[in-house]
Each structure stands twice: as structure tokens, then as C-alpha cells.
């Protein structure tokens, strides 16, 4: 998968050199390009923002550097990439969305700062690519960089070969519609706390049943909206 990121803070993404995603890049599973939006400005101050038409607080990102950045990344000869603008005004990012995006060959993340990007950039991008506004949830970040990092981690680990043992992907929270069960390792007693005895029983059916009960109980207590509605009988 090819991933391009446009940002005024390219150094934010140096952490993508390490861990699982770093390995995926070294092995060629992920080809990452980080682009400094200011490299597409032509004034002495490398200006990327200006005051909003119509007034209001804050600054808006100017369209011209964005247009040049997108033109440099999107090759008209390739199949249209998917351009994601992280925004609290977007659709909420989910595991289902991560799974779907993991199948796309080329993702472009446009990280806005300030009060957002001139809307014409989004409209222009939609003529060259499939464009989505995507939010991490109902809270406000200062810009799209941290949201982009979270999405790339969620998407990247679903690319075949990135996670060593693909079975570790299937039992996780959200993959089965329920939260994950609690996990334990050695020692069997730690600071007077025992591991639930069923996990030491060797009874695989009983362990599977206990884990499923734990998943339902956790989901009911923390995220009841994830449970299927009770049957009306
Ligand atoms: Cl994607 N961007 C920003 N700036 N704030 C957010 C967000 C995204 N998701 C939640 N809050």
C-alpha cells in the first residue's frame, strides 16, 4: 500500500519508522511519503493560512499550497486514490472502515490545522480522487496529525503480512462486535491475586465459554450500545 501524508509538521510522523509499521515499511508492505505543505508555498514566509472570509475566529488554510501538493501526489494515470481529510466534522472512524481502507492501494491523508482547510480544496480533490472526511470521535484535536497516525496504525496492521500472527487480529475488541476478554499470564498468583481458575483447568470448552461471558459482561457494563438489541418476544 502507498500512503502519502500532507502536513505542516512532517517531523510528527518520524515515529512511523519504528515498531510494526516501521518493519512493514522496511519490508516494502507500506510505502510512505510525508510531504511538507510549506514546500508548496512561494512566498518568503512560506504562508499556509489566512483570515476567514465572512469573519470569525482563527485562521483557514489557503487553497493554493494544497492544490500544488495534491497535484504532485496524485498521478492522473493511476487509479484514483482515496484522499482522507481528518476532521471532527467527518464520519466516525471504525474498525469496519479500517478494514475497508486496508484494501485500498493508495491513501492520501491531508492534515489540516487552524480552523480547517478552504472547502474548495476538498471539492477540487473530489475531482481527482475519492474524498472522505473522517473523525476519530466526538472531541477536538488541534489538527489532523494525531488522527492520521491513529488511522494509519489501525489500517496498517490489517494489511496482510504486517501483523506476524493473523490470528491475533480476530479475537480483538471490535472485530467480533464485542470488547476483548481479560488476559492473564504467569505467575498464577501475584500480590495475592489469583488467575481465574478456569484458565488453569485445561478445559478448552469451559475456557471459551468463560471468555465469551467476560466479553458480554464487559461490553454490557462499558459499551451497552454495542450489544444486539434484546429480542422482543
Ligand atoms: Cl480527525 N481531527 C481533529 N482536528 N479533531 C478531531 C478529529 C480529527 N477527530 C476527533 N477530533
Report a brief summary of the structure:
Its main location: cytoplasm. By secondary structure, the protein is α/β, with parallel strands linked by helices.
How would you describe this protein?
There is one protein chain. The chain has 7 helices and 9 strands, in the order βαβββαβαβαβααββα. The protein has helices spanning 19-26, 63-73, 95-101, 119-125, 145-156, 167-170, 204-222; strands spanning 2-7, 31-36, 49-50, 60-61, 82-92, 106-110, 130-135, 189-190, 193-194. A hairpin with a 2-residue loop joins β8 and β9 (193-194). It starts with a strand and ends in an 11-residue tail after the last helix. It folds into 2 domains: 2-164, SPOUT methyltransferase, trefoil knot domain (Alpha/beta knot, 3-Layer(aba) Sandwich), CATH 3.40.1280.10; 171-226, tRNA(m1g37)methyltransferase, domain 2 (Trp Operon Repressor, Chain A), CATH 1.10.1270. α2 packs parallel to α4 (119-125). The strands form 3 sheets. It has a 5-stranded parallel sheet. A two-stranded antiparallel sheet has the order 3-4. The chain is an alpha/beta fold. It is 29% helix and 18% strand.
